[in-house]
Amino acid sequence: MQSIKNISQALPLRPIVNPINSIMKLRLIFPVALLFIASAASAQISLGGQAGAVFSKPSTELATGIPGLNFDIKSRTSFSAGLIADIPLGEGGFRFMPELYYVDKGFKANASVDLLGQQINAESKSNISYIDLPINFAYAIELGNNRLMVGAGPYAGFGLSGKTIATTTANGVSQEQEEKVEFGNGAGQFDRVDIGANFMAAYILNSGLMLKVNYSLGLLNLSNDTDTKYKNGYFGVSLGYFFLQGGK
């Protein structure tokens, strides 16, 4: 069974956990959320809520040390929810559109290897939840009373928690292992802070309803393991509503 354990550990994103203190989470999230709401008091600023589906698939490079190991990373469907602001920049169509939301990132993976005639297969599901803060700069295209927004900008993410569940099968015998994600600088741990680029497009009705798509591209290698790379990435589709509407 030792070989099964090695295959399970070879899958990207080994369990991690050094859970964050709940009070520290609130200290991080609430001030930013309050800043969004306070900013919306201006007559020129719109503030809305949004939620939707996330199709997450990281960019990975994995050095397993196991000859003949085949693995395939697949996308994982999850969700996101949070706030979005729309701030006109001058009299033209340029806008500043910051966002603040919870997003569940991760992946699915399949792995297999033949060890001395014994076929070993493994399936893994991983997730890491984040608070993301994209800073989008967009341009509004007027379509009658509605608007098409196209933009891009940097984002910063803060990892909250996560886990990996791996099921390994050999000779008809399956073994399931669950591990939590640990944040830190040591081997097997992940950096908590993620930095990347966000690309978005949104169609906003005059009523305040919004349909938005975005692609989030992680630029930092979050893995601290030698010869291993892990960068977040996901495509998102969300619905939103601007409950405070300022300048259009």
Average pLDDT, rounded to a whole number, is: 83
CATH fold label:
Porin
CATH architecture: Beta Barrel
Q: What is the number of helical segments per DSSP (H or I, 4+ residues)? A: 2
Low-confidence runs of at least 5 consecutive residues? 1-26
Secondary structure class reads mainly beta
CATH class: Mainly Beta
Produce a short descriptive summary.
This protein is mainly beta. It is built from two helices and twelve strands; from the N terminus they run ααββββββββββββ. It has one domain: Porin, CATH 2.40.160.
What does this entry look like structurally?
The protein is mainly beta and 248 residues long. The protein has one domain: Porin. It is 11% helix and 60% strand. It has two helices and twelve strands; from the N terminus they run ααββββββββββββ. The protein has helices spanning 2-10, 22-39, and strands at 46-56, 59-61, 70-74, 76-88, 94-115, 118-143, 146-170, 173-180, 193-204, 209-218, 229-231, 233-244. The strands form two sheets. Strands 1-4-5-6-7-9-10-12 form an eight-stranded antiparallel barrel. The chain is elongated and about 70 Å long. The protein starts with a helix and ends with a strand.
